[in-house]
Amino acid sequence: MEFDNKSPIYIQIMNDIKVDIINGTLKPGDKLPSIREMAVKFKVNPNTLQRVYQELERENITYTQRGTGSFIREDSNMITNLREDMASEVIENFIESIKKFGFDNKEILKVVEDKLISKKGE
């Protein structure tokens, strides 16, 4: 995974895990790899992954069983909410960025509609 300088690494890793949950790569009830395994995978300090796991638990996405590890919550509402929250964040960032180019709301809708129509044939 290539990290960018725009947001903290732990948030980028959290988002990567969230995407895996949303797209079904990680399923409810699945055990997450150990912190050490994930630190090796992402080539980061284990403390970074410790923070990732703590934040995922704080957000009620995962839970920890002492001595066993961290698991994805078995809650379909959580996955639906996670999907909607992440989509909303992407859209808000897009709107904020494109407005910097001087686009108004109608122009933004037109650009998105045109792109969706052109992608429909793919």
TrEMBL record:
SMART domains to which the protein is assigned, alphabetical: HTH_GNTR
Family matches, as Pfam families: GntR
One example GO MF annotation: DNA binding
Record InterPro entries: Tscrpt_reg_HTH_GntR, WH-like_DNA-bd_sf, WH_DNA-bd_sf
Signal peptide, first to last residue: none
The entry's keywords: DNA-binding, Transcription, Transcription regulation
Xref: CDD domains: WHTH_GntR
Name of the protein: HTH-type transcriptional repressor YtrA
